[in-house]
Design brief:
Spore Coat Polysaccharide Biosynthesis Protein SpsA, Chain A; 9-stranded mixed β-sheet; 3-stranded mixed β-sheet; globular
């Protein structure tokens, strides 16, 4: 009888230990600076006097001409030059180019045809202009952020966050889709992808070799698949529907709820504004973050 009691007790203890271990691992996976996760082995603390350069590539298209798009575009123009160490570029395909890529002010034009998400130039076009632009500047920046025009950023908060990241092996998002779509890889949704210079260089090389195989797959899926395969660590961050302190998934069209979220998450650097009241919310967030009317 005693034997069975001890056996049952050991089984209970092991079960509790296993559950606690899983919880601990899950939590540590979301923290770059927890010594238990694999990112920590590559983490090198920067001195306060050091600086980094980052670039934000913003997916845009001249085919988008509705009021919400125009409002997002005008909002970006008001704050995209507010941080000296973060460059922001609208990324667009254009057919009548003499060169494959032209940089003009805050615009990067890549030779190609915009057709929206559908058709032979749709998602492959979004992927191609992302990779061509990234390849053209892969030696110029420490971090690359890929986003879309409807997502807003607090550039000062973003810079502070980037300064705390490892220098290499960064494949991060606050909108992760775990083992998503057909690729089976974790990937950050297209409005929120952060990668370090070393990963950018590797996926640019990989894309050049295998771009014909990408087909009509979503751009964020392919970027995630490539980043996972060239990195020796898994993608880290937060899952798409998870409340976290760095990124607010803004499908709520209530301004008061946005104010509560912004106050609740003072370190948030990204805000996805995607609802029927986007125009009003852009103005509200712009005023709240940058004091710009």
């Amino acid at each position: 009888m005693l034997y069975y009691f001890i056996l049952a007790l050991l089984l209970i203890i092991n079960t509790i230990a296993l559950v606690l271990g899983i919880i601990s691992l899950k939590n540590s996976n979301r923290d770059y600076f927890n010594k238990e996760n694999r990112f920590y082995k590559n983490y090198k603390k920067r001195s306060k006097d050091s600086s980094i350069k980052a670039v934000i590539l913003i997916i845009t298209s001249h085919l988008d001409s509705n009021d919400r798009y125009k409002s997002a575009y005008e909002t970006w123009k008001k704050y995209m030059d507010k941080h000296k160490n973060i460059d922001c570029y609208f990324l667009e395909l254009k057919e009548d180019l003499d060169d494959n890529l032209i940089k003009k002010g805050n615009h990067i034009y890549v030779k190609g045809k915009e057709t929206g998400l559908e058709g032979p130039y749709g998602r492959p076009g979004i992927l191609n202009k992302t990779m061509i632009a990234m390849n053209s500047m892969k030696n110029d920046y420490d971090y690359f952020i890929r986003t879309n025009i409807s997502t807003m950023w607090n550039l000062n908060k973003l810079y502070s966050f980037l300064m705390e990241l490892p220098e290499n092996n960064v494949h991060y998002s606050n909108s992760i889709w775990r083992e998503g779509r057909a690729s089976g890889s974790d990937f950050g949704l297209g409005h929120n992808i952060i990668i370090s210079k070393d990963i950018a260089k590797k996926i640019c090389d990989m894309y050049q070799k295998y771009k014909e195989r990408c087909g009509n797959s979503a751009d964020d899926t392919i970027i995630g698949y490539m980043a996972e395969h060239v990195s020796d660590v898994d993608m880290y961050g937060y899952e798409f529907d998870e409340d976290n302190k760095y990124f607010i998934q803004g499908f709520d069209n209530n301004e008061k709820n946005w104010e509560i979220s912004l106050d609740k998450h003072p370190d948030a650097y990204g805000f996805r504004v995607k609802n029927e009241k986007s125009k009003e919310l852009y103005k509200f967030i712009l005023k709240k973050i940058y004091n710009i009317s």
